[in-house]
Amino acid sequence: MKYANIGLFAALVALGLTGLTSAAPTMLSEGQINNTIAGNTLLEGSKWAEYYWPNSTIARKSYRGEWSAKGSTLCFDYAGTKYDGCYQMAVEGDKVHLYSKDGDLKKVLELTKGNPKNLTPAHAGTMIDKTFYDGVAMEGYDPVAYFTEGRPVKGSAEFAKEWLGAKWHFANAKHRDFFVSNPGKYMPQFGGYCSKAMSDGFVKSLDPDAWRIIDGKLYVYASQKGRKKFAKDIPGRIAKAKANWVKIKAGMSQ
Fold it and tell me: Residue 206: which domain range?
C-alpha cells in the first residue's frame, strides 16, 4: 500500500500496525504533545514527511493542514477532508505511536528534531491565501460583501475575477465590478492571511466569520479567539503585521 501522495492522517486510515509490547503505553498529556510536536518533523520512512510549525500549521510540499493538541489527543485538520481526526499519542525513543481513542495502535512514525527537509506550507509561496480551494481566495467568500452588507457572504464562480494569481468570487456582478474598479479598497489585508498570525510572524488561513473593518480596511482572522487578541492592541498588532508581511513577501519572491 502506498502513501507517497497522502499525509499523516491519510496514512492513519490504513491498516493498523501490530507487534506492540505487552506493557501499556503511557499516553502524553496536552502539554507533552505540544512540546513533542511543535517545531519538529514526523516521517514515515522515505514515503512522506510533515513539519509541525509552532503556530499549528502542518507543512508539506504538496499540501498544508493544521495540528492541535486537545486534551490528551493530537488532532489533524486538513480543511474538513476525510483525513481529519484526533489520536492518542505515546513516544518511545524517536518513535511516535498514534492510537485511536479506543487504544488501538494505528501508526508508528519517526520523530526528527527541527525541520531538516526545510518544509514550508504548500501555499507559503503565494501572495494570496488560496489554500485547498483550487486557487480561490478567501475560501470563495465575497470580499466586497463585508463592506456593503457587513457580513460574510459566499461568492459564486459565475461572478469571478482573476487578480494577483488568485480567483476571487463575488455574490453578484455589482460586487465584482466594485472590486475591479478598486481592488486595494476591498481585498483583505496581508493577502487574506490571518492578521493575528501575521502579527506573530506566521501565515495562517482565515475563518470567513472572523473579521473586522478597521479604518476602512478589511482584516481577517483564523478564529474569533485570534480576532479578540488582535483587538487588545490594534495599533501595535497592525504595525507588527505590516513589518512581518514585508519579510514574508520577500521570502515568497525568492
Answer: 137-252
Burial (0-12, 13-18, 19+ Cβ within 10 Å), 170: buried
The contacts of residue 154 (CB under 8 Å, 6+ apart) are: 140, 141, 142, 169, 171
d(CA 129, CA 17): 37
Closest CA to 102 of 125, 86, 83: 86
Q: What is the pLDDT of residue 251?
A: 59
Q: Which three cell numbers stand for residue 153?
A: 457572504
- Contact (CB, 8 A) for 219 and 138: no
pLDDT in tens, 66-91: 888 888 999 988 655 566 789 999 99
Asked whether residue 141 falls in the same domain as residue 246, the answer is yes
Could you give the CA distance from residue 53 to residue 193 in angstroms, rounded to a whole number? 16
Q: How do residues 21-58 score in pLDDT, each as one tens digit?
A: 456 789 999 999 989 998 899 998 888 888 888 767 78
- 179 within a domain of the structure (yes/no): yes
Q: Are residues 28 and 101 in the same domain?
A: yes
User: How many distinct structural domains can be found in the chain?
Assistant: 2
Residues 108 and 204 in one domain: no
Tell me if 38 sits within 8 A of 124, measured CB to CB.
no
What tens digit of pLDDT does each residue of 157-210 get?
A: 999 999 888 899 999 999 999 999 998 899 999 989 899 989 988 778 889 999
